[in-house]
Design goal:
Blueprint: H1 13-18, E1 19-20, E2 25-26, H2 28-47, H3 52-66, H4 73-85
Antiparallel strand pairs: 1-2
Helix pairs in contact: 2-3
């Protein structure tokens, strides 16, 4: 069901929990996702040119970093695509 552009869109509670537009400050959940993404990118960078044992260890780290956000399909898909792009 589409909403006309001039009508306000009701956001769900999870959407509001990630970032509070009225207070202008990211929430703890937003910071957790941001920090996980930074760690994810660090692991992807560390995997470049690494030996097989290190890559295996980093793959497990990537799995654990992405796991808490599996209920957010866009975020999970983005992390998965970055992983594929890195060849992991």
């Amino acid at each position: 069901m589409s909403t006309p552009v001039d009508e306000p869109v009701e956001h769900d509670k999870q959407d509001k929990a990630l970032h509070c537009p009225t207070c202008g400050a990211p929430t703890a959940q937003w910071h957790a996702m941001y920090d996980a993404a930074k760690e994810y990118y660090r692991a992807l960078q560390e995997a470049k040119g690494a030996d097989e044992a290190t890559i295996e260890k980093l793959a497990k780290k990537l799995d654990s970093l992405a796991a808490p956000y599996g209920d957010n399909p866009a975020y999970a898909a983005f992390l998965a695509m970055e992983r594929l792009k890195a060849g992991l």
